[in-house]
């Protein structure tokens, strides 16, 4: 009897290392992606810690110290057209620039993915209703739609972010719909339905895990576009209003300074470029690591 | 082909109607009264009602939309509030300039981008690939309005070789006195399609060269040059359609570059309309640009269907 009491250890299913750990280790092995990720983290930290990092207040101007060149004592990166310290403004600028450029993408991801997955899974009339509406907004070139919306609504951070979100929802919805339609045709979905699972359960349990990856990768590739568009709106005077520090707006207000102090006038764009390149490299690396084909 | 063309054209109609609805609704999305820009703030209620009736703003929205659409289809997009001139005329003049700019930029971007992408695709994993892919990556990542400023700083401010703004003396010719104004904006604008086309062509070439028929051609002793011709023929349709789409994007998205260079095109017009709250001009320009984009997409689809019948499924 004692033999029976010492029952054999229950057979435990050995959990496989898992998909995401594989993705993680592939990313960690790619020096370019790691570097891009490090730059992104540094930029976010710069935005969060702006008050500690910036040597001066971003809005403190000086009429006698306008447009100082790079390397002026006390102004390591020069000063802008109102005599404000460029270094401090660039550091503070990360806050609004990242907020404006990054936030529309996750918001659009939420709405776009939901619309696309519902359309893709439901098919039929629901699909037609959602996707034909999406097609209409997709029929606008993205810059035009962003400018049209924020131009009519008027300048301001909120309106600009709203416009960008509207621009990205159709793009994400289209990707989500096509991926979901592909997954829905697979046998295991039929099997789940045949065994009595409700649509919501099927979507949450079986569809979501297989479609979120590709949609997510696509969305990350939009962050760079969003950064450029967001700063572009501010550059046009449609985004953040002066005297707030934002890289696109700084490029705009410094435009007149290109004859006096070109290097300082070009600085904000360097930061937009660095941010945008980092997000693109990260997105490319993620795409490769997740083996998602465009 | 005819059936495919008919099907695609029929599919475009609802999209075009939707686009027109969105453009129509823009004015009603705008905060404040659309008449606020023309009426003095102390206008009597009577005068306000009169103007409202004159512009048809007292009718129900669907009726307003119908009347607006019928007029638009007849080429009447109303009058610019700022200048009083017909919107259609203003757009037509600006559109020519934008077409020139976007056309040159697309061709330039395609030539450079396709060459870079082709080289990178053939030499995958080598330093040629890394450098060309790096250039393509910069092309898609650069804020082009900033690149425009940098080019102005280098070639206009520092070197004084090329003009910084404007489109040159009146009239159009292939004369250098006119063309020199086109160089900087066109080069700046070409960077976006350059990057996108280079990346597309690179992956297309990589896909095609990995196919069996390419190694078969090589194995049966075909010259490398001739094999490459087959690769080009397989890559070309998709690459050309991407180019067509890019032309559409540039036509509708040149506002930032036109603002940087004060290029008198539709983007510049749009910018003016926004800041003078000239709603009819804003609405008309957006409608025309969006419709051009829809038509270019349709054209690209039809052309692609004609070149590659497999697409007509």
From TrEMBL, chain A:
Keyword terms, alphabetized: Cell membrane, Membrane, Transmembrane, Transmembrane helix, Transport
Topological type in the membrane: Multi-pass membrane protein
UniProt protein name: ABC transporter permease
Annotated InterPro entries: BP-dependent_transpt_permease, MetI-like, MetI-like_sf, OppC_N
Taxonomic superkingdom: Bacteria
Subcellular location: Cell membrane
Primary localisation category: membrane
Transmembrane segments: 31-50, 96-123, 143-169, 215-238, 258-282
Domain ABC transmembrane type-1: start-end pairs: 94-283
GO cellular component: plasma membrane
GO BP annotations, alphabetical order: transmembrane transport
A matching Pfam family: OppC_N
PROSITE patterns, per the entry: ABC_TM1
Membership in a protein family: Belongs to the binding-protein-dependent transport system permease family.
Automatic annotation (TrEMBL), chain B:
Alphabetized UniProt keyword annotations: Cell membrane, Membrane, Transmembrane, Transmembrane helix, Transport
Ranges of residues in domain ABC transmembrane type-1: 95-304
Gene3D superfamilies, per database record: MetI-like
Keyword set includes Transport: yes
Bilayer topology annotation: Multi-pass membrane protein
Any Pfam family: BPD_transp_1_N
Gene Ontology CC: plasma membrane
Record-level Gene Ontology MF annotations: dipeptide transmembrane transporter activity
Transmembrane spans: 12-30, 99-123, 135-157, 177-198, 235-261, 281-303
InterPro entries: BPD_transp_1_N, MetI-like, MetI-like_sf
Keyword Ribonucleoprotein (UniProt): no
Localization (cell): Cell membrane
Record family assignment: Belongs to the binding-protein-dependent transport system permease family.
Name listed for the protein in its UniProt record: ABC transporter permease
Species assigned in the record: Lichenibacterium minor
UniProt lineage: Bacteria, Pseudomonadati, Pseudomonadota, Alphaproteobacteria, Hyphomicrobiales
């Amino acid at each position: 009897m004692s033999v029976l009491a010492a029952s054999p250890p229950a057979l435990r299913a050995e959990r496989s290392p898992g998909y995401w750990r594989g993705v993680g280790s592939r990313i960690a092995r790619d020096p370019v992606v790691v570097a891009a990720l490090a730059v992104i983290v540094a930029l976010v930290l710069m935005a969060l810690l702006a008050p500690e990092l910036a040597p001066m207040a971003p809005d403190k101007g000086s009429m006698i110290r306008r447009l100082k060149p790079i390397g002026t004592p006390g102004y390591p990166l020069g000063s802008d057209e109102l005599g404000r310290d460029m270094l401090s403004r660039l550091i503070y600028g990360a806050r609004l620039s990242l907020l404006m450029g990054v936030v529309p993408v996750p918001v659009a991801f939420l709405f776009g993915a939901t619309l696309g997955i519902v359309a893709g899974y439901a098919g039929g009339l629901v699909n037609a209703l959602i996707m034909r509406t999406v097609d209409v907004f997709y029929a606008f070139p993205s810059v035009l739609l962003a400018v049209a919306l924020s131009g009519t609504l008027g300048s301001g951070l909120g309106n600009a972010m709203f416009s960008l979100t509207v621009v990205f929802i159709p793009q994400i919805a289209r990707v989500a719909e096509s991926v979901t339609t592909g997954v829905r045709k697979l046998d295991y979905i039929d099997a789940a339905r045949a065994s009595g699972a409700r649509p919501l359960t099927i979507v949450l349990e079986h569809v979501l895990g297989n479609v979120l990856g590709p949609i997510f990768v696509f969305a990350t590739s939009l962050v760079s576009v969003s950064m450029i568009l967001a700063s572009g709106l501010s550059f046009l005077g449609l985004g953040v209003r002066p005297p707030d520090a934002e890289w696109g707006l700084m490029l705009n207000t410094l435009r007149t300074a290109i004859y006096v102090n070109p290097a300082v006038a070009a600085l904000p764009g360097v930061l937009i470029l660095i941010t945008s390149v980092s997000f693109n490299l990260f997105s490319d690396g993620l795409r490769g690591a997740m083996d998602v084909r465009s | 082909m005819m059936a495919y063309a008919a099907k695609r054209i029929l599919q475009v109609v609802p999209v075009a109607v939707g686009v027109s609805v969105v453009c129509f609704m823009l004015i009603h999305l705008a905060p404040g009264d659309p008449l606020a820009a023309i009426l003095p703030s102390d206008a009597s209620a009577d005068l306000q009602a009169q103007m409202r009736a004159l512009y048809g703003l007292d009718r129900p929205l669907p009726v307003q939309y119908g009347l607006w659409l019928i007029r638009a289809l007849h080429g009447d997009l109303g009058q610019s509030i700022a200048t009083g001139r017909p919107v259609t005329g203003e757009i037509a003049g600006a559109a020519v300039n934008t077409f020139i700019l976007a056309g040159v930029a697309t061709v330039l971007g395609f030539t450079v981008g396709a060459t870079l992408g082709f080289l990178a695709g053939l030499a995958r994993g080598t330093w040629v690939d890394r450098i060309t892919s790096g250039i393509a990556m910069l092309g898609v990542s650069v804020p082009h309005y900033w690149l425009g400023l940098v080019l102005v700083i280098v070639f206009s401010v520092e070197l004084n070789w090329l003009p910084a703004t404007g489109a040159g003396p009146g009239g159009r010719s292939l004369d250098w006195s006119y063309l020199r104004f086109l160089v900087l904006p066109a080069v700046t604008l070409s960077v976006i399609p350059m990057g996108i086309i280079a990346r597309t062509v690179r992956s297309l070439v990589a896909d095609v060269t990995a196919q069996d028929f390419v190694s078969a051609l090589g194995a049966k002793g075909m010259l490398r040059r001739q094999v490459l011709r087959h690769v080009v023929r397989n890559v070309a349709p998709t690459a050309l359609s991407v180019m067509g789409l890019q032309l559409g994007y540039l036509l509708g998205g040149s506002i930032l570059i036109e603002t940087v260079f004060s290029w008198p095109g539709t983007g510049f017009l749009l910018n003016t309309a926004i800041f003078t709250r000239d709603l009819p001009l804003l609405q008309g320009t957006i409608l025309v640009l969006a419709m051009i984009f829809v038509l270019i997409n349709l054209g690209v689809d039809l052309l692609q269907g004609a070149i590659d019948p497999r697409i007509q499924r």
